[in-house]
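hey so u asked for the seq, here:
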Amino acid sequence: MKKGTRILLVDDELEFTADLQVALQAQGCKVVTATNSGQAQEIMGQERPELIVLGTIVPRGDAFRLHQWLKESATYSGLPLLVVDAPREKRLIKGWLMDEGLQLWAEDYVSKPIDAISLLARIDKLLEKVVGKIKVLVVDDHAVVREGIRALLSLQRDIEVVDEAVDGEDAIKKVLQLFPDVVLMDIVMPVMNGLDATKRISKECPQAKVLILTQYDEQENMFVAKQSGAYGFIPKKAAASELITGIRTIGTGRFYPPAFAYVTANW
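ran it, structure tokens below
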């Protein structure tokens, strides 16, 4: 664990907070704490933490709302988040609801009781994962669209555009050359469309996760995209607010939006 790493610990159980804070500070980390979501949001703007431990807070549902706020933020969504849920016997008071758990975007999840040493190991592992940048290939037949996406992504410290492709065939060639983590794929393109390219990429280079970015947002297109092997689907009209989060989400091997995992023929 790098000395000076800034960590935000959000939990209202003082004994748990104190034990973990001491353990982290012994590793050279700078730890700030909050006991509720309001304090946590205020601290985010002041301290710029590199990792967040989201423990148990009241009222019930506040932890989930804070988690949503973080993961929907273009500024904070790339930060690794470790959720520490309430023990089973306390979940009626402050734990996560089942439907909240289905929408969980955190990089790691555990439940109490858990000792500080075990949490240190998990935190160290999460920090190691975010050292590298997410490599992105942008695929669209319109130069203006590619340039706009590249300009947006260039502002993100954890994302790197490795190249651009002008059609599906070009995309396959560059995926096999560059091994990107995420492929932003348009659907309607000349030579080879995005869905056919996605099928090839998911078979020949499965570590490259395809995020479909298209002007078409009909449910049928979402189903076809899923069947083609895509990990996510974003309408272009929502790209400004969702693109960064989508890239970061599928860059860790998860579907975006989370409900995309459940897309079926009857969606």
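The chain has two domains: 6-129, 134-262. The first strand starts at residue 6 and ends at 10.
lmk if thats what u needed
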